[in-house]
């Protein structure tokens, strides 16, 4: 399937800044068109407007005489290969290629057939079960192209897909793309700032600059007959040299006189231009190889006004005057100022021999793929390296404060608590060694067993709610709007409050008869739930206060994870016909899976340490139904002065938290390994 693409009077603005102005372009079916220009000229924006990833402010875009600028990306029949490839990292190569076809309800047999055919064309059947992280840059690019091929689109769009490859791989991939175009016979649009890529691949080149099209033409036409001064200076390596000269129209054909006295006779008819100064463009390669008194082939372009956007005349023949003809070496050294030596100019310039019939103005493949050689360092030359080994005592001095505080505040209390747990001790004596006696007493203490259950019940109430509610808020507030920023601040602000303030706020809300909740229920003639005094509701009340207090952290973690998902992955999903639910289920949630696990583990560690809310809201009552393990340890060790029993309870809590912390470490490490 091929497409004629028409772009009519298109305009695009980002705020007050104009990006494209009144741009029109016709692309024929089966053409390979290259948008060439410097960064910021609007070429990628134009490509994205064709794909539907940017809106059109005014004007029309049509494919096969049918307007598409109002259609979503997935409905335009277009496939796009992104600069970053935009592969779904959690999917295999096969699943990446199948995703767009599954979204439109295509049968599995047809999907597999298309995938296998694309893999055969791109020589990658052995990669189908790998994930993108297991592929090289060139292999990822093939997968991105394969994902486009299986859609059988009307047109292929390439947004600088070679920029991430090394020089040797770029050269080979250019040839493969040209061969792919010949095989598929599809309309292809390629964006680049690299003129070698443009000269290699294009049937026609669209040179863009400063929001508009400068020239459209065959590659050699662009090179030999630039329409503007910008095109003349941008296309060609080395770039064209510009020289100011005064035009002498005394003879039938005008002569150009330069400031240093050199006179050049041209074939420009004298009455075509006015007297005065003009700008001449000179290709240094021609001068580097031209003997004296020899007519120069197509070597000159002239701008009559000196303006960068002025139209340039068709180059004619020029003769170096006998009276002041410079030698080839002198001319080359004077005019090839941007290219280095004359030999460098000859080696780097694109071939200027006439195009063969049927090539549509492109240089032949051997010339187009010629790349300049890069000098290699001489054999045996070693790069000096700094000594990275500092005296060991200096390294120790950096970590000594940390080791001191770590040992004093963590290791020593941990060991001391472990020692106490094996002794019958109180505040005034270390007591006798009792072995596991304290642990046996714990598991026969109904209050301790109740506190263990209370802690697990509290964790069960808060952790899933914090994780799911934090994810929901992050999805809703992951927008760059002022309202979203204000709401993010409000939801996070509770996290900076102290536990005393939090419990005071919620006691005011929950206090029976006169609290805010009772007042609201009273408006409707109902009785408010007794979240403080009712044994079945007291832990739920503490959980509500804790969720309100802690929701900011999971929300911000999820927001961070969502903002790390590349935008072009969502754009690729849009081109793959994915709706919002499919995007959430297949792209967003799998991409933040490890963050979700991390949030759950962090909240388990934090909520196991419940103390302040339970102590300040209910004092552990009623009937010890809100007393967590930490509050039990406090009561046992510092109110009943049974330090040995309290130490044993703290060791059990330490083991539970250690298990959760180790799980957090393993999740974090596996996440780092994948990236």
Which descriptors apply to this entry?
675 residues, alpha+beta, 6-stranded mixed sheet, 6-stranded antiparallel sheet, 26 helices, 18 strands, 47% helix, elongated
Q: What secondary-structure arrangement, pairings included, does this model have?
A:
Blueprint: E1 5-14, E2 17-27, E3 32-36, H1 43-51, E4 58-63, E5 66-67, E6 78-81, H2 93-103, H3 108-121, H4 137-149, E7 155-159, H5 167-184, E8 187-192, H6 195-201, E9 204-209, E10 212-217, H7 219-224, H8 229-234, E11 241-248, E12 253-258, E13 263-269, E14 276-282, H9 284-289, E15 300-303, E16 318-320, H10 328-335, H11 342-348, H12 365-368, H13 392-421, E17 423-424, E18 432-433, H14 437-442, H15 446-477, H16 482-493, H17 499-510, H18 516-523, H19 538-550, H20 552-563, H21 567-575, H22 580-591, H23 593-607, H24 612-617, H25 629-638, H26 643-674
Parallel strand pairs: 3-8, 3-9, 6-7, 7-8
Antiparallel strand pairs: 1-2, 1-4, 4-5, 9-10, 11-12, 11-14, 12-13, 13-16, 14-15, 17-18
Helix pairs in contact: 2-3, 2-4, 3-4, 13-26, 15-19, 15-20, 15-23, 16-20, 17-19, 20-23, 23-26, 25-26
């Amino acid at each position: 399937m091929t497409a004629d693409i028409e772009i009519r009077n298109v305009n695009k603005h980002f705020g007050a800044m104009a990006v494209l102005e009144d741009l029109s372009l016709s692309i024929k079916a089966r053409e390979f068109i290259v948008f060439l220009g410097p960064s910021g000229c609007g070429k990628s924006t134009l490509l994205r407007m064709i794909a539907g990833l940017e809106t059109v402010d005014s004007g029309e875009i049509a494919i096969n005489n049918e307007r598409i600028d109002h259609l979503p990306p997935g409905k335009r029949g277009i496939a796009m290969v992104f600069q970053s490839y935009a592969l779904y990292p959690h999917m295999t190569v096969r699943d990446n290629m199948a995703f767009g076809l599954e979204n439109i309800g295509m049968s599995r047999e047809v999907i597999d057939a298309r995938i296998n055919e694309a893999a055969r064309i791109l020589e990658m059947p052995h990669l189908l079960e790998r994930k993108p992280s297991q592929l090289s840059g060139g292999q990822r690019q093939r997968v991105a192209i394969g994902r486009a091929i299986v859609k059988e689109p009307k047109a292929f769009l390439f947004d600088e897909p070679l920029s991430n490859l090394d020089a040797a791989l770029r050269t080979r991939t250019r040839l493969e793309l040209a061969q792919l175009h010949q095989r598929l016979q599809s309309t292809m649009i390629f964006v680049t700032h690299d003129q070698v890529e443009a000269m290699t691949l294009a049937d026609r080149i669209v040179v863009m600059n400063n929001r508009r099209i400068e020239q459209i033409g065959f590659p050699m036409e662009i090179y030999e007959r630039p329409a503007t001064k910008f095109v003349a200076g941008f296309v060609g390596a080395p770039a064209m040299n510009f020289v100011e000269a005064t035009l002498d129209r005394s003879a039938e054909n005008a002569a150009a006189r330069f400031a240093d006295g050199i006179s050049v006779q041209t074939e420009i008819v004298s009455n075509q231009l006015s007297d005065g100064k003009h700008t001449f463009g000179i290709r240094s390669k021609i001068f580097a190889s031209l003997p004296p008194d020899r007519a120069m082939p197509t070597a000159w372009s002239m701008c009559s006004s000196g303006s960068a956007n002025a139209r340039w005349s068709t180059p004619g023949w020029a003769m170096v005057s006998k009276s002041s003809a410079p030698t080839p070496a002198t001319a080359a050294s004077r005019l090839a100022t941007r290219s280095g030596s004359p030999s460098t100019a000859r080696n780097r310039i694109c071939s200027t021999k006439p195009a063969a019939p049927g090539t549509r103005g492109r240089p032949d493949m051997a010339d187009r793929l010629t790349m300049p050689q890069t000098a290699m360092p001489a054999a045996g030359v070693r790069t000096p390296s700094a000594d990275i080994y500092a005296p060991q005592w200096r390294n120790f001095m950096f970590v000594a404060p940390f080791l001191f505080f770590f040992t004093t505040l963590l290791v020593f209390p941990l060991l001391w608590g472990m020692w106490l747990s094996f002794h019958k001790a109180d505040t005034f004596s270390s007591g006798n060694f009792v072995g596991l006696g304290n642990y046996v007493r714990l598991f026969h203490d109904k209050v301790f067993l109740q506190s263990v259950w209370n802690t697990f019940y509290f964790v069960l109430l808060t952790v899933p709610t914090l994780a799911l509610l934090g994810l929901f808020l992050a999805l809703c507030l992951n927008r760059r709007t002022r309202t979203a920023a204000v709401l993010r601040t409000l939801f996070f602000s509770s996290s900076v409050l102290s536990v005393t303030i939090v419990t005071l706020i919620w006691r005011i809300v929950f206090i029976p008869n006169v609290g805010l909740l009772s007042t609201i229920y009273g408006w409707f003639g109902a009785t408010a739930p007794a979240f403080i005094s009712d044994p079945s509701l007291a832990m739920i009340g503490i959980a509500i206060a804790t969720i309100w207090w802690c929701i900011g952290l999971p929300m911000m973690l999820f927001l961070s994870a969502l903002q790390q998902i590349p935008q072009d992955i969502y754009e690729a999903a849009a081109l793959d016909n994915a709706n919002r639910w499919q995007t959430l289920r297949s792209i967003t949630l799998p991409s933040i899976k490890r963050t979700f696990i991390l949030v759950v583990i962090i909240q388990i560690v934090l909520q196991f340490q419940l103390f302040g809310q339970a102590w300040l809201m209910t004092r552990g009552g009623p009937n010890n139904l809100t007393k967590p393990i930490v509050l039990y340890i406090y009561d046992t060790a510092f109110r009943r002065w049974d330090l040995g029993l309290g130490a044993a309870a703290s060791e059990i809590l330490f083991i539970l938290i250690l298990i959760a912390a180790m799980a957090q470490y393993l999740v974090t490490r596996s996440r780092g390994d994948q990236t």
